[in-house]
Write a structure and sequence with these properties.
The structure holds three protein chains of three kinds. By secondary structure, chain A is an alpha/beta fold. Chain A has helices spanning 15-26, 42-53, 55-60, 77-80, 111-121; strands at residues 4-5, 34-39, 64-68, 99-107, 128-136, 148-152, 159-165, 171-177. Chain C has helices at residues 75-84, 103-116, 139-145, 160-173, 196-201, 208-225, 237-249, 259-263, 285-296, 312-315, 332-343, 347-353, 356-362; strands at 2-12, 17-26, 29-33, 44-47, 52-55, 57-59, 87-92, 120-126, 149-151, 176-180, 192-193, 205-206, 228-232, 253-258, 302-304, 377-387, 406-416, 419-423. Classes of the chains: A alpha/beta, B alpha/beta, C alpha/beta.
Chain lengths: 199, 327, 424
């Protein structure tokens, strides 16, 4: 990536703290017939952490979970093609009549959520779908917004907020600036486009 | 020499043969196919990737089976599909191949799946289509059948994930087989250390060892300790003539029976591209036996073809990037 | 008409001349080299400073496509191509439509060519009627009509008894046979050398043995019958060895190689380049080297262009279905010079292989600059590069494996019978 790390603004919160907030906010939503679905890849990391943090509640309500990779449903496929890496979606439960909670790391335009909803409906007809995100960065382009976001941070279009998973499994947020025109887009590396690997 | 399958950025533009494709692209096709396998198990066995695109199956050589798998693959990607069987006897001249192709382009076809009895036909068509059109080779003469080669290696990888530690035996009519050529290139590119071909000399092409294979004429020796046995179809017209004395004699020497298979490793798998000649190149007991992965091959074939089409058709618009790439 | 060609480097292999000399032409003949004859007043002076002046090239194999295939090429287009390439005499094989097995056809072809006043055309008559390999053609009458020899083009005589009879009959009258050695059963449906590339591309192969088997029969029968036989377009290393051996015992054998075979191998087919669909097929590097060595040691006597113009539509097909052939008349000189340079062969010797020896094989008065000989002359710049492209070629056949290549050796002026017929 040609983007360079910007000095963290003082007010950029810690992902680990936000995670705790998110867990607390999510807790009341967990009930029977609920399933968590993480969107690749940040949403999946968050979900894995939430599964541990809310272990008791999840067990109590027999909450199921799955993973979505929305590559095949993205509306920018025409422009960008497929990502070099895409992982199979895994929805190991019956979607029919479930209350689905989608988990995403950074909510931005709403297009990933739309793709995820379209994909979910190909598995069956859920009772409801809600969306939780670690950060809502503003800039939505569709009538979609997360029910729960641990933080709201307004960012410029030239900035890219990304969730990073450290080797020990902990998470942190990273702010990057996007070069207006990246020559890397033309390189044989199939998808080094900043942002596309992030949900 | 420019590789006609890749664009200036090294991305897949056409799929014409396995030869010349970098390992990275082969792996990308296989990994993407992995994601498509799951799609078939859903309530709605479809993804919207190729919505609004028109895929044209252009079959100058009949094959209901291959055509059907491409049709299913395209439909599962939400493409519109036209299938044409072009009578080769009335259209054997190159100009008419191009006439047919030009007509379909005028009808806004986006992708051609081509099968032809002449080696190089898919390359020929790919050379003459405009930039935005993609060509997939569904079999050209004896040259190449890349999606078959890919689905074979995909199947092998499912059962034997460590490709760097395999002994693969390919048995039968290598001379006339585009499948064998595609398999050999796929296996060598992905680092399979030992590939054997087993056939009488009449069914082996000249200098086949230059493709990176070991030559065996004896089934017993060739199958010994193999992890994978890939059988090839023997065309009817080759069974009695100057190539082979009879189907019976072929079965006796080169037909895969349980006895011969027992020389391979106990957990060896058996592949066949179909349609099978039971009792000629393969015994029914083996074809339907525990070691056979012939039906999974068919299932995976659809996922592979979906992956190839999805990789070819996307990312072609030249519009500058918008902010709509993030959540 | 008197012409004075001055300041050129004159190459005349027959008279072993390679020096800076002036050439004087009068009434279509060469009248002097070096000193201007007394009383010579030139009507035209050609300045050949920094250029080479040599005999007009003689091509042993150039298809003109007339009669019959005028949509591929015409006598006019191909004879213009010939003089553009410095070729002043050429032999054309009999596989026209109709086949050149009738004296009337040969006379007409000669007559038409003569009227055009471009390169001299020397037809090779059909050896058997309709080239079918069954019955002898009227060789005597064809000879009278102007055939300089007899050929089967690319069509083999499968019946060895017929082959034997053709040679006996030709030997009776001292006619030369021009044969291409390819055993048709082994070569059946083949489109490329039976080797690595054909195996990789799934193309049906033509094994080297197709050439050597046919060659063995031809050489044996030639020896038995005493016929004078010229082998066209040798392609294999084993074939070169066989000719070398045969020549030791039989002075009536000669042979040529196509300029294509001196520069290309099976690998040039690349991804099914139909311009490389040629007969004989492009073979291996080893074969190419052996052909080159054979040419150097005299086993192979001459280089031909194997000029075979094909229309674009006929090439627009998958490899095997694309018609065989490539244009060559305008490339013969450049390809010969390129070979000579690569192999360290002198210019004089290189020119000999495309003029003097070819003329000798055809038995025609050409290929040298002797006093009183016809002034058929090629003047070229050996150092000038030109790019092979459809637009640069006069031939109606635009297909050649060398398309897009820069070549050294540009013909500046061609004279036939002391008349300038081409000037660049």
């Amino acid at each position: 990536m040609t983007s360079e790390n910007i000095k963290l603004p003082d007010n950029l919160p810690s992902a680990e703290n936000l995670l705790k907030t998110l867990a607390a906010q999510l807790k009341p939503l967990l009930q029977t017939n609920t399933a968590l679905v993480g969107i690749q890849s940040g949403g999946v990391w968050l979900m894995q952490r939430l599964l541990v943090l809310l272990e008791k509640d999840i067990a109590a309500h027999a909450v199921e979970h799955g993973i979505l990779d929305v590559s095949f449903y993205r509306d920018d496929y025409e422009m960008r093609g497929l990502k070099a890496e895409n992982r199979p979606s895994q929805i190991p439960f019956d979607v029919e009549n479930k209350h689905i909670i989608l988990i995403d790391d950074v909510f931005y335009t709403g297009r990933t959520t739309r793709a995820a909803m379209n994909e979910l409906f190909d598995y069956g007809r859920p009772a409801s779908i809600s969306l939780i995100a670690l950060v809502n960065r503003g800039g939505r382009e569709l009538p979609i917004t997360p029910q729960i976001a641990a933080a709201e941070i307004v960012l410029d279009a030239s900035q890219n907020l990304q969730l990073i998973q450290n080797v020990d499994g902990t998470l942190n947020l990273e702010l990057q600036s996007l070069e207006p025109k990246s020559f890397e887009l033309q390189s044989p590396e199939l998808q080094p486009i900043p942002g596309t690997t992030q949900a | 020499m420019n590789n006609p399958q890749l664009d200036a950025d090294g991305r897949l533009r056409h799929l014409l043969s396995i030869e010349g494709l970098p390992k990275k692209i082969l792996n990308q096709i296989l990994d993407t196919a992995e994601s498509f396998v799951g799609v078939a198990e859903r309530e709605v066995k479809k993804v919207p990737l190729l919505r609004g695109k028109t895929v044209c199956n252009l079959f100058f050589e009949n094959s209901t089976r291959t055509r059907t798998t491409f049709e299913i693959a395209a439909k599962r990607l939400s493409a519109d599909v036209i299938s044409l069987n072009v009578n080769t006897s009335s259209q054997s001249k190159g100009e008419t191949i191009l006439d047919t192709v030009d007509n379909l382009i005028a009808m806004h076809a986006d992708m051609f799946v081509v099968r032809h009895s002449q080696s190089g036909a898919a390359h020929f068509i790919a050379k003459h289509v405009p930039d935005h059109i993609h060509v997939i080779n569904a079999g050209d003469g004896r040259h190449s059948h890349p999606t078959q080669g890919l689905l074979d290696i995909f199947t092998i990888r499912k059962y034997k994930p460590d490709l760097h530690n395999l002994r693969v035996a390919i048995v039968g009519d290598v001379l006339h087989s585009r499948v064998a050529r595609s398999e050999i290139h796929a296996l060598t590119t992905l680092g399979v250390p030992e590939i054997r071909v087993i056939a009488p000399k009449t069914l082996l092409p000249a200098q086949v060892d230059k493709l990176g294979v070991h030559i065996f004429h004896d089934m017993q020796a060739g199958l010994k300790d193999a992890d994978v046995v890939m059988m090839l179809r023997l065309q009817n017209e080759r069974m009695n003539g100057a190539m082979l004395p009879s189907a019976q004699e072929y079965y006796k020497t080169y037909g895969l029976t349980q006895d011969k298979l027992s020389l391979a490793k106990p957990d060896a798998i058996v592949l066949h591209p179909g349609p099978m000649n039971r009792g000629v190149e393969i015994d029914s007991g083996v074809a339907d036996g525990a070691q056979s992965v012939i039906l999974p091959q068919v299932t995976y074939g659809i996922a592979i073809r979906m992956a190839v089409m999805a990789m070819l058709a996307g990312g072609q618009a030249t519009t500058s990037q918008t902010s709509g790439t993030q959540s | 008409m008197k012409i004075h060609i001055k300041n050129g480097r004159v190459l005349d292999p027959k008279n072993n001349i390679d020096s800076k000399l002036d050439v004087f032409i009068a009434a279509g003949k060469i009248v002097a080299l070096g000193e201007m004859p007394a009383g010579f007043v030139a009507n035209q002076t050609i300045d050949a400073s920094n250029l080479i002046v040599c005999p007009g090239l003689v091509d042993l194999s150039a298809r003109l496509r007339e009669p019959g295939d005028e949509y591929k090429a015409t006598l006019v287009s191909e004879l213009q191509a010939a003089v553009t390439g410095g070729v002043t005499s050429l032999a054309c094989p009999p596989d026209t439509d109709p086949v050149l097995d009738e004296p009337g056809l040969v006379e007409m072809l000669k007559h038409r060519a003569k009227q055009l006043n471009l390169a001299h055309v020397y037809p090779l008559g059909a050896l058997t009627r309709q080239l079918q390999g069954n019955a002898l053609s009227e060789m005597g009458a064809l000879r009278e009509a102007g055939c300089v020899g007899f050929s089967q083009a690319n069509i083999a005589i499968t019946d060895t008894q017929v082959l034997w009879r053709t040679m006996e009959y030709a030997a009776t009258f001292g006619f030369t046979l021009f044969l291409h050695a390819e055993e048709p059963f082994l070569a059946k449906d083949g489109v490329a050398h039976d080797g690595e590339v054909a195996s990789r591309l799934g193309l049906k192969g033509i094994p080297s043995a197709a050439e050597t088997l046919a060659l063995a029969s031809i050489l044996r029968i030639a020896k038995e019958t005493g016929a004078r036989v010229h082998i066209n377009r040798l392609s294999t290393a084993e074939g070169v060895d066989m000719i070398r051996e045969a020549k030791k015992q039989n002075p009536n054998i000669s042979c040529d190689v196509s300029a294509n075979q001196l520069h290309l191998t099976e690998h040039d087919i690349g991804y099914f380049n139909s311009n490389c669909h040629l007969k004989p097929p492009l073979r291996t590097q080893r074969d190419k080297e052996a052909l080159s060595a054979g040419l150097k040691d005299g086993t192979i006597d001459a280089i031909c262009s194997d000029h075979t113009p094909v229309d674009d539509d006929a090439k627009l097909a998958p490899f095997a279905e694309a018609e065989i052939g490539a244009t060559g008349l305008e490339l013969l000189l450049a390809l010969t010079l390129k070979w000579a340079q690569q192999e360290n062969v002198s210019l004089l010797r290189a020119i000999k292989l495309v003029s003097q020896t070819s003329a000798q094989i055809l038995g025609i008065p050409a290929g040298d600059l002797s006093i009183n000989s016809d002034a058929d002359i090629c003047i070229f710049n050996a150092a000038e590069y030109w790019k092979v492209s459809p637009g640069a070629l006069k031939s109606q056949g635009k297909n050649t494996p060398f398309n897009g290549l820069e070549m050294a050796g540009k013909v500046k002026t061609t004279l036939i019978h002391g008349q300038v017929v081409y000037q660049s």
